[in-house]
Specification:
2 helices; about 35% strand; about 20% helix; Thiol Ester Dehydrase, Chain A; 6 strands; 6-stranded antiparallel sheet; alpha+beta
Length: about 150
């Protein structure tokens, strides 16, 4: 699948190379009984952060060259709510010299065919000392290639 897929909502969970479960919490719900917009963005942040740490070996505390968030997007398609377990999928879309775009799908526990929310999360590798963009490490690029 490509970043410019006509309707990312129709990419099933199986279309994402990396997946994780995210349990919802009662406090995620708003007064209408579904997950608040902030919760969806936290689910996206959680899957990207776990992927970066587990798969790409990013250590946000120790690495001098590390990814920094420059853009996030979440499109809402249907409600998720507590006590549902969110199935999150991630795949790599665009891969630049210093940036990587992650494509995300959030699914309900019982529907892995149609995403409840889709979005993207863009990281740019920067040098912590100079706060400027730098080429991503070759090891990270190799990992990202595997999850395209």
């Amino acid at each position: 699948m490509t970043e410019d897929a006509a309707n990312p909502r129709l990419v099933p969970l199986s279309g994402y190379a990396y997946r994780m479960e995210i349990p919802t919490r009662f406090g995620d719900n708003d007064m209408l009984g579904h997950a608040n917009n902030v919760a969806y963005n936290r689910y996206i942040e959680s899957v990207v952060t776990q992927f970066q740490m587990q798969e790409a070996g990013v250590d946000y505390v120790k690495n001098r060259i590390a990814p920094v968030v420059v853009e996030t997007l979440c499109r809402f398609h249907r409600s998720l709510s507590y006590p549902e377990t969110v199935q999150a999928g991630l795949r790599v879309g665009r891969l630049g010299n210093s940036s990587v775009t992650f494509l995300i799908g959030l699914f309900g526990a019982d529907d892995h065919a149609t995403a409840a929310a889709t979005g993207h999360f863009i990281h740019v590798y920067t040098d912590r000392d100079t706060e400027t963009a730098v080429p991503m490490p070759a090891a990270a690029r190799a990992v990202y290639e595997r999850f395209r």
